[in-house]
Write a structure and sequence with these properties.
By secondary structure, the protein is an alpha/beta fold. About 40% of the residues lie in helices and about 15% in strands. The chain has helices at about 15-25, 40-45, 60-65, 85-90, 105-120, 140-155, 165-170, 180-185, 205-210, 230-240, 255-260, 275-295; strands at about 1-5, 30-35, 50-55, 70-75, 95, 135-140, 155-160, 175, 190-195, 220, 245, 265. A seven-stranded parallel beta sheet has the order 8-7-6-9-10-11-12, sandwiched between helices. Helix 3 (about 60-65) links the parallel strand 3 (about 50-55) and strand 4. The chain is elongated and about 60 Å long. The two termini are about 20 Å apart. Bound molecules: 3-phosphoglyceric acid. 3-phosphoglyceric acid binds near residues 56, 78 and 102.
Length: about 300
């Protein structure tokens, strides 16, 4: 059995060692494809792979077709919008994620970006504090919960909206659930996005929603660029000179955003949220364990297709 780790953005070395241990202890072979620059390298590497561990790497129908022996793909992380689930299913390939394993790392980066934003990108001018501000968490999953926990340490008031989460569960964390997404935006000084990218959420963060925010609001996006309506965000920022946008996912219109809003827009150059040794170890080793278990016992917990 050959397990391929295909990561354009590599895991920390210590995580790869942990993955190797899991794979080799199970009697399987590990292959590594890191920092590849051409899709052809991925197509070549998957040819004899029985299982693949990926991050945001694109596994489309062409990759699935090239991987003749493939049985399982595990996305070491939360979002699986980078995998063609239908093509995988049609080819009899199981797709899983590793929910929660990198959530704390992403949540910590939310605050890295937020402090940077409210202190005016460290330009020396007088900024503001997070204490006492209302933080609206848009989607209360694993990352959202960690964001809520950390926000309380900053002395923030925490609100959340999640159509799939029961109010009682949100309240149990000392967080105030809002009855609608509109209410969340109306009631928050800062919004932190944690929605997945899918057909229902694509471009859903639009002018109408942003228009509900109070003056001087901040939007922090550690989720996906696809959920933002980029054209409407630009128009909104032009009309609202005190609004700030900080993101961990480079927008398609990064050059335009930088040129127009240099003092209130920031993006990391490459998604950094889950890029810690701890998150790499947690997600990478969980992925390896899930593959070994799936191959040896057929366990399909965490299957998403
Ligand atoms: C995820 O969905 O788990 C995060 O967005 C992290 O993605 P990454 O593994 O590409 O850093």
């Amino acid at each position: 059995m050959k397990i391929l780790v295909a990561t354009d953005k590599p895991f920390a070395k210590v995580a790869v060692e942990g993955i190797r241990k899991e794979v080799e202890n199970a009697g399987f072979e590990l292959a590594l494809l890191e920092k590849y620059t051409e899709k052809q390298q991925l197509l070549d590497a998957v040819v004899d792979a029985d299982a693949i561990i990926i991050r945001s790497d694109i596994i489309d129908a062409e990759v699935i077709a090239a991987a003749k022996q493939l049985k399982i793909v595990v996305r070491a992380g939360a979002g699986y919008d980078n995998v063609d689930l239908e093509a995988a299913k049609a080819a009899g390939v199981c797709v899983m994620n590793t929910p929660g394993q990198n959530a704390n790392a992403v949540a910590e980066l939310v605050f890295g970006l937020l402090v940077f934003a409210v202190r005016n990108f460290y330009n020396g001018t007088s900024g503001s504090e997070l204490k006492g501000k209302k933080l609206g968490i848009h989607a209360y999953g694993n990352v959202g919960r960690n964001v809520a926990r950390i926000a309380k340490g900053f002395g923030m008031e925490v609100l959340a909206y999640d159509m799939f989460c029961r109010d009682e569960d949100i309240k149990a964390d000392g967080v105030e659930p809002t009855c609608s997404v509109k209410m969340l935006y109306q009631s928050s000084d800062i919004i932190s996005l944690h929605i997945p990218a899918n057909k229902d959420t694509r471009q859903s963060i639009n002018a109408e929603l942003l228009g509900l925010l109070p003056k001087g609001a901040v939007l922090v996006n550690t989720a996906r660029k696809e959920v933002i309506h980029e054209t409407e965000l630009v128009a909104f920022m032009e009309a609202h000179p005190e609004f700030k946008y900080v993101t961990d996912i480079l927008p398609d219109n990064h050059a335009e955003m930088t040129e127009k809003f240099a003092t209130r827009y920031f993006s990391t150059p490459k998604k950094m949220g889950a890029q810690t040794s701890e998150a790499n170890i947690n997600a990478g080793i969980a992925a390896a364990k899930q593959i070994v278990d799936f191959i040896k016992t057929g366990n399909e917990t965490f299957r998403v297709n």
